[in-house]
Amino acid sequence: QQEYLIARRQGGTTEDSALLAAAKAKLRLLGMPEGEIAALAQRGTAQRDVPLLAPASGVVESLDVRQGGYVSPQTNIYAIANLDRVWVNVALYSYQLPWIRIGNPVRLHLPAYPGKAWEGRLNFLYPTLDAKNRTVTARLSFPNPGGELRPGTYATATILASPKETLAVPSSAVLRTAQGDYVMMGEGQGHFLPVQVALGPETDGWVAIDKGLKVGDRVVESAQFLLYSESQFQ
């Protein structure tokens, strides 16, 4: 402030004075609003306390200074987050990816708000696979005008995948073994044949069959009740 006032006294009030312009630019970089700079010029004296306005709307996520503390140009004073729209990261298994498209509508539920749902969109799929969990991260975007969606909150997300016709069987029809996934296909007269299948997405008690069966094949719906030895599937 003193530097700006001295520049005004030495260079007059013309804004094209290089010294005055540099001093004013420094005040702007320090976060002083234009109104405060104008008031300083009119007042002619520096203020001990200067209001510091946030550069954007939002909520304070962290405050890194306290009253009486010293700050330098490198000091982070606070962090602000605009929560009018939030991102939610969810983990997807690789077999679910063929059903997922950027732009898919999504629905979010929070345990703290039973019966309430937030509608949003899937707006990004990360290109890498999590080596430990074998999952791909999808980023969902939700409007948050009421501020109920807070960072760090756990939620349940439903991705409304693109419709696709597929062959499916009840989940209970699948025998999941160390050698792979099988269904028991009926051959007639009480005879059954174990058939290895490749599974697709699973939802609401049904699982898609990507390979191993064709339309019209008859399978045992509750295969878990059949007695078998794993040697049958080797």
* N-to-C order of helices and strands: HHHEEEEEEEEEEEE
Number of helical regions:
3
CATH superfamily of the largest domain: Efflux pump adaptor protein, beta barrel domain
The biggest sheet, with number of strands, parallel, antiparallel or mixed sense and barrel status, is: 5 strands, antiparallel
Distance between the termini: 83 Å
Q: What structural category arises from helix and sheet content? A: mainly beta
Please report the first level of CATH classification, the CATH class of the largest domain.
Mainly Beta
Overall pLDDT, averaged? 82
In total, how many beta strands?
12
Anisotropy-based shape: rod-shaped
Q: Biggest sheet, strands in spatial order?
A: 3-6-5-4-7
What is the CA-atom radius of gyration, in angstroms?
A: 32 Å
Whole-number tally of structural domains: 4
**Into which percent range does the helicity of residues fall?**
10-25%
Query: Which architecture of the largest domain per CATH?
Result: Beta Barrel
CATH topology of the largest domain: Elongation Factor Tu (Ef-tu), domain 3
- Uncertain spans, ≥5 residues at pLDDT below 50? none
Task: Tell me the β content.
Answer: 35-45%
Key words describing this protein structure:
Elongation Factor Tu (Ef-tu), domain 3; 5-stranded antiparallel beta sheet; transmembrane transporter activity
State the gist of this model.
With 234 residues, this protein is mainly beta. Helix 1 packs antiparallel against helix 2.
Care to describe what's here?
It is a single chain. This protein has 234 residues and is mainly beta. The chain has 4 domains: 1-53, no CATH class; 55-82, no CATH class; 85-159, Elongation Factor Tu (Ef-tu), domain 3; 168-233, conserved putative lor/sdh protein from methanococcus maripaludis s2 fold, CATH 2.40.420.20. Helices cover 14% and strands 36% of the residues. It contains 3 helices and 12 strands. The protein has helices at residues 2-11, 18-29, 34-43, and strands at 59-63, 78-81, 85-93, 105-109, 118-130, 135-143, 156-159, 168-170, 174-177, 180-188, 191-203, 206-211. The strands form 3 sheets. It has a 5-stranded antiparallel β-sheet with strand order 3-6-5-4-7, with no helix packed on it. A hairpin with a 2-residue loop joins β10 and β11. α1 (2-11) runs antiparallel to α2. Residues 167-220 form the Multidrug resistance protein MdtA-like C-terminal permuted SH3 domain. Belongs to the membrane fusion protein (MFP) (TC 8.A.1) family. Residues 85-159 form the CusB-like beta-barrel domain.
